[in-house]
Each structure stands twice: as structure tokens, then as C-alpha cells.
Description:
By secondary structure, the protein is of the alpha/beta class. The protein has 14 helices and 10 strands. The protein has helices at residues 28-40, 55-62, 81-95, 120-129, 143-152, 168-179, 198-205, 220-231, 238-250, 271-274, 277-283, 292-299, 309-313, 320-336; strands spanning 3-5, 12-14, 17-19, 45-47, 71-76, 100-106, 133-139, 157-161, 183-187, 211-216. α2 (55-62) links the parallel β4 and β5.
Amino acid sequence: MGKISLGGTGIVAERNGFGALPIQRVEMEEAVRILRKAYEGGMTFFDSSRAYSDSEAKLGRAFEGVRKNVVIATKTFAKRPEDFRKDLESSLEALRTDYIDIYQFHWPSVCYKPGDGSLMYECMLEAKRQGKIRHIGLTSHLLGLARECVESGLYETLQFPLSYLSSDRDLELVAACRGAGMLFIAMKALSGGLITDSSAAYAFMAQFEGVVPIWGIQRESELDEWLAHMRDEPRLTEARRAGIERDRAQLSGEFCRGCGYCQPCPSGIVIQNCARMSLLIRRSPSAGWLTPQSQAMMRKIEDCVECGECASRCPYGLDAPALLKKNYADYRRILSGEVSVG
């Protein structure tokens, strides 16, 4: 295991973080047990959000009594000062703490700055003066907005997707953060489940200084996998490099990353699963995607009215309705036996 300095924040933490979005789907007692096991296994960086239902409350329960030993990052979707202050107080209460180490604007549409009329950055400064937050961050899926955040000199952390499927421009953003003394919090390090070799993903991320990957964890078995990597760190061997290149070749071009920002769909389609079903069903045990429930989920694509709302919200500029049609057609061929997925 290795601790790193988190950019210019002065915080030191284990360089592998716990992404606490998935634990909102776990019962409270089980979630608390998993979180405590993560802490006892050496993880000290935990990332949540006001938007992740009861995720913050689970962190609050898990770390009561050891709060000073962990780094907690959380987020607000607020776009108005009154909502910002309400979210902040709700997060502090749920987390059972009087301060948040890193408070982040959660996927804002603009890079908030002092004097821009929104008063949102001023809210961050006010909260920092009050001691309620210690460092100011921002999360984004948009490369241009992320670059503006780095260049502004106003933010101490940036959370952005990073994996071995990332483009050269994404990797340049990592270098820009390092040059600006910012912590880079890497989300989607498994590309929404499309990367299935955790050892290769771990070895790839370990190359970068000033980067903390937050591994989304829901099950104890997933946690055990990451803790094992932390104890015996995988190296970027030639075999792993070859596997990475195979995945890059297979996943090049336009594909859904599963971020979910296209939602909600007015027709009730689970776009972040349906629009990448062809990849999911080939890169994970196919039986789980052929159940009656999954078939019903895919049939909802027939209700698509092509309103374009999903495409307008996609941070990667994908034609989501076209991807849905393509994946549904492939799925039906698989169900009929015309195509075999093993």
C-alpha cells in the first residue's frame, strides 16, 4: 500500500479510494460493515454525494469515532445559493461530522467563478471560512469545462473519468492537473463495468502521480479484490499491456460509458444499460443479461419516441437513440440464437 499527498491540499491518504455510489444499493448494516472493512484494510479516501440517496449516512455511521482518520469527499448538485447551503448542512448531518475534507460541485454546466453572478463559488468560500469545508473541487465529464476549471486556478481538486480507455486528451488533463498542483480524482476507472481485468486497471492507474482512483464498491467480494491489489500491487507487465491494447481495439469508437447523465428517460428506458448491452453481454457472464427482467428492460426500447433529450444531455455527444436501436437489434439476434455470446 502507498500513501500519497493529494495535490496541493496537504492531505495525505491511501492512493486508492472507495467510490461510495454503489453502496446506496446495500442495506445499512451491510454497507457499514463493508465501509469499516475498507478502512481497516487501509483505505482512507471515500467519495460520496448528496445525490447518492443514503450513501452519506452510511459513511457517517461507519466512521463515527474515527472521522479524523479518513478523508471524505462529497458533492452538491445545487445551482442556487439557498440549495447549496441546504445541501451542505444535510451532508454534514448525514456524515455525522462538522467538516467535509473536499466539497465538490457535482457535474455543473459551467465552471463557477467569483463575480459570475451565480454566487455559487462565493458559497464555497463562505463555507470554507466557516470551517465547514476544507477544499473546493468540481466534477465533470466535459473535457472543455474540466480544462477551464484547471486553468482558472480556483479549484483544488478535479474529478473526471480516467481509465486505460481514455483518450490522449484526457491524459493531457491529468498532466495539467499535476502542473497546477491539483488532485485528480479518477472516476469510471473500470469504464462503467466494461473493463473486467481489475489488476490491469489497477496497474494502469498506479502510473500517475497525484491521481486517486475511486473504485465503485457494492459487494464485499469487490472490496476484497481491491484490498488484495493494495497488499500485493499488480505491475504493468507485457501481458497486461497486451490485454489493455486488445480492450482498446475492441472498445474504440463510440460507446456508452454508463455515466447515466442521459437520464431520466421520459419513456422509462434504462439508457445507460440498454445503450451498451452488446458490450456488457460479451464482457461479463451473459446469463445475467438474458433474464426475463433484462429482456423486459430491453423491450422498453420499443417505446423510444426519439425525443432527443438523452442525446442532448450526453457529455460524450453520443447519438443515444441510434445506440439503443443498434443494441436492441443485436440483443434480439442473441435471444433468437442467431448470434452466440458464450
